[in-house]
Amino acid sequence: MRIHHIAIICSNYAASKQFYTEILGLTVLAEHYRAERESWKLDLGIGGHYVLELFSFPQPPARPSRPEACGLRHLAFAVADVAAQKSLLEQKGLICEAIRIDEFTGKPFFFTRDPDNLPLEFYQE
């Protein structure tokens, strides 16, 4: 029917929560601490839709991303204006790659990274 949500395990819960809510602007839908697992679970939404689940666990291993490894390659967000989004994120201190054009659709996009170095794409709809 559709993708329900994407789950991300972070190394620093406070930094990732701040990044996804204050920098990217996702909305907190629910937040729970699971004492038996020493784990936070944060449900985040965009436009009222549940899209991202952020977890913390004690000492998670680092995620390899360069060279690219098998598994999730990146998380992509649809935006109305790629140039405006890039400018906004750079004003908030993020390092963003140059805007490129998708060779198949002709639409602009760019990448940045979250606090754990997960590649994030912003794609113009």
UniProtKB/TrEMBL annotation:
Q: Which CDD domains does UniProt cross-reference here?
A: VOC_Bs_YwkD_like
Instruction: State which residue ranges cross the membrane.
Output: none
- Signal peptide stretch: none
Keywords recorded for this protein, A-Z: Metal-binding
Q: Which InterPro entries match?
A: Fosfomycin_Res_Enzymes, Glyas_Bleomycin-R_OHBP_Dase, Glyas_Fos-R_dOase_dom, VOC_core, YwkD-like_dom
The VOC domain extends over 2-125
Full protein name: VOC family protein
Lineage here is:
Bacteria, Pseudomonadati, Pseudomonadota, Betaproteobacteria, Neisseriales
